[in-house]
Amino acid sequence: MSPLDEFLNDPTSTVRVVDDHAAVQRLFLERGWSDGLPMVPPTAARVEAMLAYCDRAAHAPVAAMPPRYGAVTPIRLAINAVMAGCEPEFFPVVLAAAEAMCDPAFNLYACQATTHPVAPLVIVNGPIAREIGMNARVNAFGPGNAANATIGRALRLALINIGGGIPGAGDMATHGAPSKYSFCVAENEDENPWQPLHVERGFAPDATTVTLIATEPPHNVNDHSSTSAEGILKLVAGTMRTTGNNDIYNYQDGTYPQPLLVFGPEHAQTVAKGGLTKRDVREYLFEHARVPLGAFSDEYIELRFRRKYPDAPLDMLIPIFKRPEDLLIAVIGGPGKHTVVLPTFGATQPITLALRRADGALARSVLDFKKKI
Amino acid sequence: MNELVLLVPEAAAPEVEAAVINERGLQRAELRLGILDNSKANADHLLRMVADQVRAAHAVKSVLTLRKSSVAMAAKPEVIEQLVNDCDLVFSAMAD
Question: Cβ separation of B8 and A345 shorter than 8 Å?
């Protein structure tokens, strides 16, 4: 018996529609299943093909996705991946990322429901990112790559359809963000002068991992002028020290926000050639990316800071993040003198998860997940 | 025209048991009132007004006011436990 038979025999798990493009797309919108863009109809054959790259039981939940706490089963996730346009080979990354974002420490409930423009960013490291052709270089955060675009989109559709993050209901973002359509990249490990992100977070270099970080869209640091490490970091610090970000006030409340700094490879090379390690970068930015208390309004100071600093003068400098080690650093992008800063939602922790086969072994290839027929 | 059979992408909310309201507690001569301030701006003002309204309508034995450390995080288990043990009726609120 196929894992789909249970679905197909359950009238609440299927819907019939005239085989007409406009009618199908209208149905998606009417049911609230859509991100607004046209989607691929999730037929049994397509979902079965997607599940060919999954070695877990199709109906066994891997997580519960808030705020609805719908069960993330491979089959339900595969339906959303089909709708997003994913190739079946991408599905192991989708499944791992969905599981990672449901880790309680990620605080997906608040990330989904908040008025803040946060979206779960997925950074993929390791051999499978290269195998499925993910883009870590030119325009990595932008359009043009099927894996980046459709993995991120599959996760967004799952957030809506499984998690209940429905715009205006479970997702109350004041403005939202374009990153809520899709937000998935690979790290440019080949041009990273330091350890890649996943190795720094305790995984083997040949592991494939997904790192989930709840962030705002990228804030650019354009620096075509500086030729030294300190020059570039000075510009980065200037971009980081803003009053309107969540990180600076959330850690006053006992959380440990971990904002993300993504160097373009040219900036990374300049900083590394200046002799700076990632630790040096963190310590420099901890010291220099600070906002004077007086930059905030009187009311803001009373609500957010006075409990902790009852007598602090207005020229006291407050770091953007709580400890140097809280800054995440990755290298992504192509040629050009740009770096980007991504403040987080604040009350969230990044989660890194390795892609593993059902027997627990690290996956070396998407073929490890492929069902033998 | 032919029909397509599509698989539904939605997952239902899990079934949960409805909470049982302790009506005996609510019928006490003197209520033990709980206030959970979620730490949003003005939540404390709103909750104080609610507490005053309850006091005007009903005898109140005690008011236990607790505050979440972060608006975006769930209340800590010990906070929930204290409210369950020491209160007959708890108010919480969003504000801004």
Answer: no
